[in-house]
Amino acid sequence: MVFSSNPLSLSVPDPTFESWLRDSGYLDVIDNQQTAAAAAPTTGTSTISDPTITIPISSFLFRYLVSFFSHLWTLLSLLTFNPFAKLTTNDFSGETPSWTKGFFADFLSYSFPASASQARLRVQENVKRYARNYASLFILFFACSLYQLPLALVGLISSLALWDSFRFLSDKWGLNRFPVTEMILVRFAQCVTAIILLWLNVQMALCCTLVVSYIVMLLHAAFRKLTPVKQPSQGRRK
């Protein structure tokens, strides 16, 4: 018995439905759909158990190389887009997500991105969600860098002490009544600060922190699966 199609059924094209999911904030559905689509061809393959059948090793090597370069290209694609494209200042004003349940979560919350588009989707959304966590990690890495480079720590403290002393003396002597003199002293203090920071390798600690923090952020955001977010409840229409 053949059933005819229902003319009243709703048929939405995939691009339109995906666009609606993006606009509605259901990015986790798109992420799961892309992961399932990438895993579909591998789950349907059958294995050969007959020992008399020989398969050339070159075919396995070819598949391995294709898979390797595909994963490598996905990782390299993380450097081709701006991970802070959707980041706003409001993302730093909310509460910090839980480190155990939200940020790190469990092992099942991670998977290799199936494509470059999925990696882009995950990175931009996770950077937006865990902005405060990544900022805390940056501060932690910077503190570790200063611990490994004591001279940089001395230079940073010296610079802060210099500007604190300048502010104290400016209020004591009333330099705001002499704007030209105040401007000259400010420029002189800036030059001294730059010399201290460069001489004591503070820029080295800052560069190391930026590189390590950026790599950790990209890898975590790319491998971290998107989780459902609480949608704003709509009031009942009267």
UniProtKB/TrEMBL annotation:
UniProt keyword terms in alphabetical order: Membrane, Transmembrane, Transmembrane helix, Transport
Classification via InterPro entries: Prenylated_rab_accept_PRA1
GO cellular component: endoplasmic reticulum; Golgi apparatus; membrane
Transmembrane spans: 61-81, 137-163, 205-223
Key word Secreted present: no
Bilayer topology annotation: Multi-pass membrane protein
Cleaved signal peptide residues: none
Subcellular location: Endomembrane system; Membrane
Family named by the database record: Belongs to the PRA1 family.
Name of the featured protein: PRA1 family protein
Organism lineage: Eukaryota, Viridiplantae, Streptophyta, Embryophyta, Tracheophyta
